[in-house]
Amino acid sequence: MATVTLRNIRKSFGDLEVIKGINLDIEDRSFVVFVGPSGCGKSTLLRLIAGLEEITAGDLFIDGERANDTPPDKRGLAMVFQSYALYPHMTVAGNMGFSLRLAGVPRAERDKKVIEAARTLQLEDLLERKPKELSGGQRQRVAIGRAIVREPKVFLFDEPLSNLDASLRAQMRIEIARLHESLNATMIYVTHDQVEAMTLADKIVVLRDGAIEQIGAPLELYHRPKNLFVAGFIGSPKMNLLPARVIAMSDSGITVRLTGIGDLDIPVRSNGLKPDEPVTVGVRSERLDVNDQGQFQGQVLVAERLGRETHLHVQMEGGEMITVEINGDSPAHIHDRVAVQINGRDCHLFNSSGEAV
Amino acid sequence: MKRSFNKKIVITLIAWSAAIFMFFPIFWMLLAGFKTEIDAITTPPLLLFEPTLENYEAVQQRANYIKAATNSVMISGGATLLALVFSIPAAYAMAFFPTRRTRSTLLWMLSTKMLPPVGVLVPVYILFRDFGLIDTRTGLIVIYALINLPIVVWLLYTFFKEAPKEILEAGRMDGATSRQEIFYLLMPLALPGVASTALLSIILCWNEAFWSLNLTTSDAAPLTAFIASFSAPEGLFWAKLSAASTMAIAPILIFGWLSQRQLVRGLTFGAVK
Question: pTM value?
């Protein structure tokens, strides 16, 4: 199996630079997810690794060897496309065995490998079908099967689940995770869905505007986002991000005034913050509660009941909106007046340029 | 509801009038072919007459229909094949690896269609003479292929652009060379488009008269030259000319009719999607 190393990778289309100097080390057998909003360059980055786009500047190493000028099929990669990109005029077996046929692998050996991959993906009964006779999930599995047959060093997935409906997506997500386990392969996966990123990745790479915002394990990003962008992007429901202002600093922490809500002590070191500096306080909805000890008053505007938990969208007295996750059995109703409890030590603090303090 | 019904009637009427307007000359030619020479030039024209086959007999005796028809088939088919051999790689390159000049190259190719052919008749004639191509099928195949190249490239280019790019990229990841990509993936994907392009090219070659009249005499003369031989020095014989014309257009008409579904599907593919 293989490592992939990116050194200062850049890509321009004409005058427009879309990838702005990416440095990244992908370890052998790891599952790395590129995540970011649309247009952040995550698919382009994958296509640069695949060799479908030319690298403008920088070096790409696959297994330690510079691969900038290696043609796509010689890089030892296999790619699963968003649209599946199955060959519509070939059967499932034909699709899966196409690369072997091009490589001149004898028929018997080809068939053996195709059947082996089909067994892994439960496609044995569909081998003679054409892609148009398959459901979305089956097509997706054929696309993955086509990749498996090549026995690549690295699997590349370009938003493979975005064309599937929600329940199938959840199921395929599990299948891909199991596949990673059983194939023991390096996988690079692109998605805009932070749930997919959280559940699948060993390592998440958050991209924005062609640059890396943060790299880390899912929970690392969840608990210690480096900046406002990552804080807002990772986690569902979205982290509450409240504008505030520093009013006092001491050895034990910082006191901030949350705009339209009230004062709050946060036990962090001041790290260059100045009094009166505008900051942002981030706090996850599951860290909040509504109870008698709540310091801040508000009114429930929407209550989303999900069963195990309920998401309350509370409008605070100053007009700010806060999402609070409470137990699904808790009696909370729309228009209720509630007291929101915010615990200073659960809060993330971001300075005026959006960096975590 | 009512308004759309009225609209439908108007559109149907317009379509029918246009169709009748276009078909009438062909219909008249069909009739004239079965008239005697006298009936054919009578004024007012006759709609009811005693049909005769004498014109068809006369045409058979005067000229070699089978030979001309064979030439037409060979030349149209040969020229279309030759044009495709050059156009498919050209259109592939333009559709999938465009450069800054692709667009202007396409426009330039199309602009050559605006040149009046007579403008290059003398140089082409001299070239043909020097290469010994006058009155040969090879000569006509080459010149027809060249004439049709712009339109064939243009059509294939638009069809290829419709082919899903990711499928070809998947092929590239699977290790396909450009040639394998074209033959194993692009051709099957764009088959309806390639077929309708080929059909159109065959029809255009079949109907081409200017070059065939100027560059052939007998050996390689296709059906266009065969018809022209009936507007001969003795004067115009409408009935015989009509019979000859009917025989000349019959194969392509039947061919076009059989393939019209394919043709319409191919040519409107990009437009209605």
Answer: 0.81
